[in-house]
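Record pair follows.
FIRST:
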Amino acid sequence: MQYSLNIILNTLLMLVSSAVIGWFINNLTATLLFFVSFSFLRVCSGGFHLRTATACNIVTTLLCVLIPFFLHFSGSKLLLINATSLIIMIFFAPNPDKNAQIPLHWYPGLKAASIAIVSLNFFIGSSVFGLAFLVQSLTVIPWRRRY
């Protein structure tokens, strides 16, 4: 129960801090779109976790605020970003947290959902979604061996 409560409170803290900073820099919509799309894909695909909740809060907030503020892509660059995210999801998703205890028979569905979410941006063509999906897809790659 404490684990679940910590997840909810950390998510709320990241959302509120991202929204406040996004509002101050006049980029609230893009910040919230990045946060929601990043989080939605993360639920399905899993991914790397930082060692502490504080580090997670700071890094996630900075990503949600800074990436959509400074980076905008379209055309072939956005297509490349979407394709890269899709390929990573095909090969590595899902990569859930060991504490999630997701049954193995859910993995194909989670993979399909992750692929579908990323694929939607080929039709939507959003730079914010594309960058959020790319950042999230990079967290799914198992950079270290698991023992």
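SECOND:
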Amino acid sequence: MPFHLSKTCSETRARAGRLATPHGDIETPIFMPVGTQATVKAVSPEELVELGAQIILGNTYHLYLRPGVETIRRFGGLHRFMHWERPILTDSGGFQVFSLAGLSRISEEGYAFQSHLDGGARHLLTPEGAVAVQMGLDSDIMMCLDQCIAYPAERGEAEQALALTSRWAQRCKAAWRANEGCPNQLFGIVQGGMYKDLRTRSVAEIVGVGFPGYAVGGLSVGEPKEVMLEMADHTLPLLPADAPRYVMGVGTPADLVEMIALGADMFDCVMPTRNARNGQLFTRTGTININNARFRDDTDPIAPDCGCYACRHYSRAYIRHLFQAKEILAHRLATIHNLHFYLSLVKAARVAILEGTFAQFRRDFRHTYES
């Protein structure tokens, strides 16, 4: 996958680049809204384009179970099925099996699991199967199947998961390479728990297999924030400079700014959409809970300095009323605002990197934002 590094920050490891995909180029650093069920909850593809989303994330596990890869294949892939013409990244499904561990068993062969939808027939997700499903979805960027572990994890457990992830990476690449001329690209995933030496070993093994891009997995699984940043700080510089670096499942706005400073290029997280549905809205000074009584008569927009559709047209009082009345529009407006905030934040970070002002941008953000 052609990845061009445009500029790096002289005071941090922040970098701005451009990533080419079959459905268009992606300017990095970039945040990817999560479209678990072939939809980013509460918003349409047209609204995502207006918000500036360049790429979204689809969930292999959920789409495999419903509506099924054959249904999506008949539409020519996920892009046509959901009417999204820009790039799509799909995860491998491993994290969802990990999070539904009560229904699954792991072996060298893969994950054996029962559907969380009905608990009926058992399924087997192998490395080769994960690649085949993602090829059926026709995502631009596919992820290797890996073993994600919970925090805390004993060293032995982390080491076993690392080794299995490396062996599965080899099988995933072989399955991908067997499809000559395939334009879809495959990213490897680094594991190793919260052990620096295991992270170093995992990088060596995954980079040794060789992929167009690399992800740092196994973070944001319950560990303290300082541990997450410490592991990212250790791992990211070990990855090839000429390939995109994706930190999976991260995070808060403050997390994104810090990860960009550490050299990360790509992010995904359900936080802007999930928190929106609970009434938590992001602003440049921190979060607000729009359900609070103090907003009942507030005529200001969510954030006076925000140019999103919700802030251009509606007051805090009105949006609070929608939440109190349990109106669907509340979720839509809150989601539009939060996604706008996230996407604008990483866009501003990119501009700052290109202009040579990222270090000051980071200092200003840390000064004003209260997490």
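COMMENT: The longest strand covers residues 15-21.
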